[in-house]
Design goal:
The complex is a heterodimer of chains A (507) and B (463). Chain A is α/β, with parallel strands linked by helices and 507 residues long. Chain A has 16 helices and 12 strands. Chain B is α/β, with parallel strands linked by helices and 463 residues long. Chain B has 15 helices and 13 strands. Chain B folds into 3 domains: 48 residues, no CATH class; 264 residues, Aspartate Aminotransferase, domain 2 (3-Layer(aba) Sandwich), CATH 3.40.640; 106 residues, Aspartate Aminotransferase, domain 1. The chains are: A alpha/beta (507), B alpha/beta (463).
Chain lengths: 507, 463
Amino acid sequence: MFHQAKWDEPLLIERSAAGKKGHNPTRPSDIERKVVGHDPWNNVPKALLRNGLPPLPEVSEPEVVRHYTRLSQENFAVDLGIYPLGSCTMKYNPKVSETIAQNPKLEKIHPEQDESTVQGILALLHRLDEFLAEITGMSRMSLQPVAGAAGEYLGALIMRAYHKSKGELEQRREMIIPDSAHGTNPASAAMAGFNVIVVPSNGEGTVDLEALRKVAGPKTAGLMITNPNTLGIFEKNVLQIAEAVHDAGGLLYYDGANFNAILGKVRPGDMGFDIVHLNLHKTFATPHGGGGPGAGPVGVRKDLERFLPVPLVGFDGKKYFFDYDVPHSVGKVTAFHGNIGVLVRAYAYILSLGPDGLKAVAETAVLNTNYVLAKVLEHSKFELPFSPRRKHEFVLSAKKINERTGVRALDIGKRMLDWGLHSPTVYFPQIVEEAMMVEAPETESLRDLDELVEAFIRVGKEADSDPERLRSAPHNTSVGRIDEVKASHPKTLTLKWNIPNARDNTP
Amino acid sequence: MATFDHPFLPNAGAPIRKIMLEAIGVASIDELYSDIPSQVRTNRALKVDWLPSEQEVKSHLDNVLAENKSASDMPIFLGAGVYNHYLPAAVKAILARTEFQTSYTPYQAEISQGLLQSLFEFQSMIADLTQMDAVNSSLYDGSTALGEAARMASRATGRKKILVPEGLHPGKFSVLKNYTEPAGIGIETFRYDRETGGLEKGDLVSKVDRDTAAVYCEVPSFFGVLDPEVVNVPSICHVKGALSIVGFDPVSLGGLKPPGEYEVDIVIAEGQSISTEMNFGGPALGIIGCRGENLIRQLPGRLIGMTTTFDEKERAFSMVLQTREQHIRREKATSNICTNEALFAIGAAVYLSLLGPQGLRQLFESILVKTGYAIKMLSEIPGVVVPRFRDPHYQEFVISFKGARGTLARLNKSLLGHGVHGGKSLVKDFPELGESALFCVTEVHSTEAIDKLRLLIEKFLEA
């Protein structure tokens, strides 16, 4: 029986007492003090001088470590159990990658170092560029984007630059996005100045080709799409989709959120995509860190290379170097070279699996997901709208269960937490009512998958026998059901407003 | 059909595959992929390398990385946005907790209280340190934080011009441009005083107008200058209905006035120095905070709030005000950000908890003294102007050489030959400063390292 740790851990500020400290920072040497001479604080302009001490907790090192270790125990993670969050690809993160990333030859290099002193990391980045280009079927990658959405934004910037170079940017202001897309797609397109045109799904859960042909035209900048889509369905008309967009003069963008399904099986470049991003924190097994860091490298076809961010990493046959010779570069999307620590882990992951292993990753992810789907449909009351053919994820509907019992997808997800599983993604995609989006990555064992199936069966039965148990779930987590609506006010965001007298409480 | 056993893939072996395929009711894996048009399928092995054992992977990566020279091999006097500070062992120990490291965004709050409380504590500590009303739970880095702040100011004011200092990191400027241009926001620069290094007030005042959404300043500046005039910038802005944005250095707030005390509206920072190692510039930690409810509703990214359980018996934490975000608002969201840098926000919370009020003040003082020492020692070298600017400095300073063109490049090469990495050349980006470089000194730079730097520069110039 799962019981999450519960420590009733106060805020660290509530453990604070005058005079305690948790770290002795390095002090200047006597000679340094002597040479500087006068009181160094005299050197700080009065107008900029802090009045008194910074208001931080005063706690010892053991208290800090115990506090955050206890909090870590009140947190679910891939290392604790299955995380069937659809579209998030929460797979196991290999430990060897972590060990590699702790190398001081990586941790302690500065991004502005002379090229001659960073030949190792430049060689690695150069090779990773080649690997990812080969894996996606693109010509060249930029490793600079630090997240999936950052990759999408760069993709949209490249589309701007491309249309501008043809003198058509003013006219091409529309980005076509399917209704099943992730929220980041329309958000990225809008941030890049495009108007979002939503194209509906058809009865099979794929892009409605006729509807697409109607909206694609001289105003089209491009189309952003995942394949398989968020329902887990492969867009089998992808070549016709590509043709429709290209005929209209637009560019085709591949959102790599669901790439885990097709790794080594089919490449975006071969499906007609012009720009691609990958989520290394999904497909390439780098840890998600409770929300980040990630990395979202972007690949392009040959004639779009001239728009990539600078610098790229070049090789002249002897030395690796930063290549700023990108004639129509969009500039930079992050101040330096990207999330290097994440890129190194992904490189180690590729080497650990090789060509056959990467293909086995996709095949096993699809196998796992289809296994769970078959078992859930066989033994439970959930429904599967749209086509039954799924890849790495599927979306169930709890609509019928809801109509019969009043229990919602949210309640079902919360109840699953009670059994030491993470909930599926709920209420997404929005085209499915009472949606529960399930992804069973390749790193889950058959036994783990059977537990997940068992949870669906059990929760379906409980919806009839004891709906209140679901509506009041979870019961075995650190805290019970949380009132999130009450929290939705700016005054919940910091202690300043939260705890009277914690410190000066002026608004 | 070939199968591939692997330690990461419990179900890839033939016997288990067989059981699962039978349960699904298909004969082969290929059947699960039959809807992919045959003409696009990859019918060959990908051309990527493979190392069959974990040991080989580890050795290979160690060998590749061994080609780097790091700050453990030589003193490096580079800063300019990424800083080599000592990271306490306890920070690393907490960040290595895989309960944090391998968790996802805390969408299911009840099973993610540890992460949520840690992020709430991060928000609160940064808000206290800067005297802001709210801080989000992280952006990508300092450069994208500036881009987001500019867009946020433009939305809040309905105006389309951002004023930034001439002395801005070129990479940061480029990122800012990519965040603002598509939104129709123009960037203008205001001059720095060639003598003091501080902002040229007359120039700034003449450029702030009714189209100005915000003015951005950095404390310390890109040149390491502590410019007292910055505290007057918010009132210059507010008179014209514009907002004030300040970029701060987290450690410096151990001794410097919190921006909230001089009425700054939005603060941003690069938090790498208080959460993680340099790692060739990434991952980093973008920090953004603001004052006032109107601006809070314009914040990008995730916010964590304190609430209770439904039965009101227990304190609890959850993500809040999510209607600003892309997964709900889609194209109307305040930003497209989803994945952020949450792990390092926890790192920053641990760091600030360890240092506490006294520690952060002491660290600021250490860096202040070491900066003063380095400037003093280097200023004794004939043919060198340091500091290039008259205003006081913290952590970084510009050093100018009177020599001919190419002097700095030759000097940096000579330093490298003697096991010291010099500062960032400003020759290309700031030609008005001649043969100049930006040097950085933190608590990790020993007296010996600074003395060696002085000796090497002296010898080079004598030769």
